[in-house]
Give the backbone structure.
Amino acid sequence: MGALTRAERLVAAAAPIRSRVAWAIAGFGAVAVGACVTAPLVGSTPISLTRAWDPSLPFASNVDAQIFFVARLPRVLSAALVGSALAAAGVVFQALLRNPLATPFTLGVSAGAALGAMLAITAGATLVIGPVGTVPLASFLGSLAAVAVVYLLASARHRGFSTNVMLLAGVTLNSFFSALILFLQFFADMTQTMRTVRWLMGDLDVASYGPILAAVPLVLIASVAFAWLARALNLLAIGPEQAEGRGVDVLRAQRVAFVSASLATGAAVSLGGPIGFVGIVVPHLVRLLVGSDHRVLLPAASLFGATFLIGCDLVSRTVMAPLELPVGIVTAVIGGPFFLWLLITRGAGGATR
Amino acid sequence: MKRLFHDVFFCCVVALATMIAAEPPSSARRIVSLVPAVTEMLFAVGAGPQVVGVSSFDREPVQVAALPRVGALLDPDLERILSLRPDMVVAYGTQEDLHRQLARAGIPVFSYKHGGLAGITETIQRVGERTGHVEAANALVRDIEADLTAVRTRVASQPRPKVLLVFGRDPDSLRNVFASGGIGFLHDVLELAGGTNVLSDVRREGLQISVEQILAKRPEVVLELRAEADADLESKTRKVWRTLAAVPAVRDRRVHVMTGSEMVVPGPRIARAAERIARLLHPSVKPVRP
């Protein structure tokens, strides 16, 4: 036994986690890819796939191809991106705030985004950067503003980075922004109010690839940060003091966690609107399946988040066709009862870890 | 003597009061209207001078610019309404709280219910009855019906294009497209003007329609309605729709925008809206009347 060097022992300890991560990615990844491949085949209209994929037909006059490539595929891809970003951000916020009820929207990101969207809708101004339209752009800027306020408050007047202040600031900001939204709505006309309300219910019918491509880099940057954070989050979830004792730069980890998770949330909300429950139901469900080691949990949750939202959007576009059931209603109807069941069967503490 | 004088005076007062009461109770003299469509009707039947307050959204006719504003559907300002001492308030049928409050104050309410094309002329007649302008209202209804019939007969023999009637969408993309379903005055006007609503099987006035459904329904004409004009609206709109090249309307360059409040207000100018849509759908058919 004495023959084993320290490095060898470390490798031996790391092997199971490596294979668990690999298995989780393979398993949840296969399901997510399966969802991405099958979901575009189903829709509110029957289409001929042979016609859709026939390159000899001119695309401009090929309705089946346009339904497949312009209507369905971007929807499925944006659902995958938004679902994955919200689920992973949910995991990170729950660990950062050490609170099982934390969601990507707890710290005011979505309220800031909603205020931005509302301002864009009522002002009627047009502001377009590349493929990103006025409302998504304004909502992203709004989410950044909210993040900046919470960040400054959490850093100010405290040594370090107070998660308590962050939580209080976030909750306050949520109600403050909601009040501002109501204020704007009071002066808006009926159609503007209706559009805002509809925006709040979430919508993934993006009808082009541009907005998705614009959101991908932000989510990618956040994902790299999440991967780097995974071990630190395990320790942060136990407690900042313990993490400090195990050599984690707590302050830096907390800051990176907050900024990257907020970035992912902001990108997701600007693409699909504030779709609720994905960021809380998926993390808890995946925790039940793979445990609470963030090195496994984060990739698994982001892959399952993609699958979950693709499924919910499939329901939203088919169940009442030609009417569109807003996807936020579908996630809430599925997510709400599930979460209550989780609370009853596992207890509030059991759901965290 | 004094007693006699008193009695005579009393009798006169009673007689005067009876005379006032004998006047049709329906003739409102001070009207507050929370419904822009009904405001237009009031002015069109000649009851304009009786209108003392309008909603925040009233723009037509120009005379309303000088009138006090009393809120709208969601935020009626009861205090301002009462301060105008109205003897009739035009309110939406869904404003139940307001109905109750006005009933408590003893103010009669003209309850407005949003409906189809037939509802417009019906409402005009009711407006005439309640304001003492029955003749003018009947004449107005006859005019509107004659104009509508003229439009209908003119396009009757024409092929009917499949039309997607859009009320609203995001400004720079095809997200959140709201379109007319198979009920409501705009659907009725569209069908009368010689078009077939691609969403006529949906028993709703308006609905959000996905890009997939737009592609699947294959409208031959896309008609976007806007209350207000905007610079190079038509070219901007065409550009947004270009992504859906397989839609016949896009292929044949039949994506149009129409602006003007007569297109969205179910009021006395509805025949003009029908006329404009008919000309757009059937450009080769010349109008009979100028």
User: Anything to note?
Assistant: Chain A is about 75% helix and 0% strand. The mean pLDDT of chain A is 85. Residues 6-350 of chain A form a domain with the ABC transporter involved in vitamin B12 uptake, BtuC fold (CATH 1.10.3470.10).
